[in-house]
Design a protein that fits this description.
By secondary structure, this protein is an alpha/beta fold. The chain is 63% helix and 9% strand. It has two domains: 324 residues, ABC transporter transmembrane region fold (Up-down Bundle); 248 residues, Rossmann fold (3-Layer(aba) Sandwich). It starts with 12 loop residues before the first helix and ends with a helix.
């Protein structure tokens, strides 16, 4: 399981090393993803890496032979045999260089193909996980941060981590071939090469950790930055932004937050530059110290000119290879830190994999299943106040229930529990005598048709906006037309340029925007796509339509829901009074329950609210 992200900087070097070891355990999972993306390309990458690793030493050695051959030929007056040998070696080096270029190009191509495959695989995993998450996860800021961190790095970090590992292997193989040549000339030079590179590794690892903490801990503020940008760029905010003159305020906050991010990034960049410059000077000094030593040996005739050229070439490239190994380790550390975000997100428990008890057989489809709430209480995660408290209700097939009460009374929360978007904190909900926690959640939800107050305006065609209410019938135009008639959306659709094929919304080309009331009629039609739904839920379905359209809708609704359970949430009492039962919720509790006439005779909260609204219409 992925370790949790640190909430504060590790206080000591020991703590940092412990944290690093924990995060490097992400490597096996990353390599599994890499293999799953494309086994064939993974093998090709491995082979090309090994070939690329041995070519530099071969090229360097052939270069030494060319120099020694040229020197020998010049001493012997340009002997024909020696000149021919030199030309042959030049041709060999040319072939090796061509091979190296071909291998490098092939590696680049393989990396790009793997990047596409791996990025697609991970995006699918992230989106699939999003489908498994419950409503509580989307309403939790910590989970949202994990999702955003995972999405931000999914296309780059996994491949980067794997490629750094292959780079280490490549450089190790290259160093092994170089070591044979360097030891023959000067064993201590290998020690100098290693010692000059270690400080760079320490600095790189430290800065990598600092970069990770910076980008991870600013996730909530990054979300705020995106939200401020959203306010200024989305069509549904423009009216208030213009009317209230919000532009300068929001833009000012955006600029302030951006400047904070920029200052943090600049400080980190300056640290990287400072350390890089200092360590670069150290590395350069080590190289030129060895350069002077080798040049002196060549001048005294201890080694040949070719040996000097080989030594300097190998030392310089060996130093780069060793430092490349250490840099790759530092980069792998940073990549592994970011991979922990991905695995932390993918491993969020959803609670849907294993039911708490052995699932009972779901009740058969069709009318005849009652819904019963037994002493149901619920509070949202992290909250102390109860959203619902000791709610007991029973609905028989064909019965209509209206939920009324002030905002925050618990009406929509009760609907969320019925759809198992949340589970009761206490008590139970039975469907056909079966606790809904023991039912397959997809089967349970397939029995409901619903239109919510915050319905979605899909940037799709009209037909798709309606057909999404029952995906298996998305291509059934006759059923879509019937649902549009039932939802009162047919007149709206007839007036559109391409009718059911009209693209809606303003996000894409040729999109047709609708009024709030027209969008709502499509949402109601979408709910009516489920012709075999056993329960219909209408959550403020008439908030954006006129009184005449409301009356027509509920006449159709009454006919369609004749033998089904129907639950209506509305602030319009002309709608509410049509229900068989009216539950008046107050502070999460059912304060009154009964028919319209019974509640009016009781002269309680319902009668008070009804009279207030009726007086408003009369006045």
């Amino acid at each position: 399981m992925a370790p949790p992200l640190p909430s504060a900087p590790p206080p000591s070097l020991k703590s940092r090393l412990k944290n690093a070891g924990s995060l490097f355990r992400q490597l096996p999972g990353t390599f599994r993803l890499f293999w799953q993306a494309s086994p064939k390309l993974a093998v090709v990458l491995g082979v090309l890496t090994l070939v690329a690793a041995v070519l530099p030493a071969a090229i360097a050695y052939v270069g030494k032979l060319i120099v020694d051959g040229v020197v020998a030929a010049s001493k012997e007056g340009g002997a024909e045999v020696l000149r021919s040998r030199v030309l042959g070696l030049v041709g060999l080096e040319f072939g090796l260089m061509l091979g190296s270029a071909l291998v490098d190009r092939s590696l680049a191509l393989t990396r790009e193909l793997l990047r596409a495959n791996l990025g697609n695989l991970l995006n699918e995993r992230i989106l699939h996980k999003a489908l498994e998450l419950e409503l509580r996860h989307f309403e939790d800021s910590d989970t949202y941060d994990k999702m955003q961190n995972a999405r931000r790095e999914a296309n780059s970090r996994p491949l980067s981590l794997v490629m750094q590992a292959f780079t280490i292997v490549r450089n190790l193989v290259t160093l092994s071939t170089y070591a044979v040549l360097l030891v023959a000339l000067s064993p201590w030079s290998v020690v100098v090469l290693v010692a000059a590179s270690i400080p760079a590794f320490i600095a790189e690892a430290r800065l990598a950790a600092a970069g990770f903490r910076l980008y991870s801990w600013r996730a909530p503020e990054g979300r705020k930055l995106n939200y401020l940008e959203w306010i200024l760029t989305r069509d549904n905010h423009v009216k208030e932004v213009k009317l209230f003159g919000l532009g300068p305020l929001v833009l000012g906050r955006y600029r302030t937050l951006f400047q904070k991010f920029f200052s943090e990034d600049r400080a980190l960049a300056l640290k990287r530059m400072g350390w890089g410059l200092g360590l670069g000077i150290l590395s350069l000094g080590a190289f030129y110290g060895c350069y002077a030593f080798v040049a002196n040996r060549a001048a005294t005739g201890t080694i040949t000119v070719g040996d000097m050229v080989l030594y300097l070439s190998v030392f310089r490239q060996g130093q780069a290879a060793f430092q490349g190994i250490l840099t790759s380790i530092g980069s792998m550390y940073e990549d592994a830190l970011f991979m922990s975000n991905l695995f932390a997100y993918l491993e969020i428990p959803t609670g849907s994999e294993q039911p708490r008890v052995l699932p009972a057989k779901s009740p058969p489809r069709g009318p005849g299943n009652a819904i019963e709430l037994r002493d149901v209480s619920f509070r949202y995660p992290g909250k102390e106040a109860w959203a619902l408290r000791n709610v007991t209700l029973k609905l028989q097939p064909g019965e209509k229930l209206a939920l009324v009460g002030e905002n925050g009374a618990g009406k929509s929360t009760l609907v969320k529990l019925l759809l198992r978007l949340y589970e009761p904190t206490e008590g139970s909900i039975l469907y056909g005598g079966v606790d809904i926690r023991d039912m397959d959640v997809a089967d349970l939800r397939s029995r409901f048709g619903a239109v919510f107050q915050d319905f979605v305006r899909y940037q799709f065609s009209v037909a798709e906006n309606i057909g999404l209410g029952h995906v298996p019938a998305l291509e059934d135009r006759n059923r879509i037309v019937r649902a549009a008639d039932l939802g009162g959306a047919s007149p709206v659709i007839t007036a559109l340029p391409q009718q059911y094929d009209t693209m809606l919304g303003g996000w894409f080309e040729k999109g047709q925007e609708l009024s709030a009331g027209q969008w709502q009629k499509l949402a109601v039609a979408r709910a009516f796509m489920r012709e075999d739904a056993e329960v219909l839920i209408l959550d403020e379905p008439t908030a954006s339509i006129d009184a005449e359209a409301e009356h027509a809708l509920f006449e159709r609704f009454q006919a369609l829901a004749a033998d089904r359970i129907a639950i209506v949430i509305s602030h319009r009492f002309s709608t509410v009074r049509m229900a068989d039962q009216i539950a008046v919720l107050h502070n999460g509790q059912v304060e009154e329950l009964g028919s319209h006439d019974a509640l009016m005779a009781k002269d309680g909260r319902y009668a008070h609210l009804f009279n207030l609204q009726a007086r408003g219409y009369r006045d």
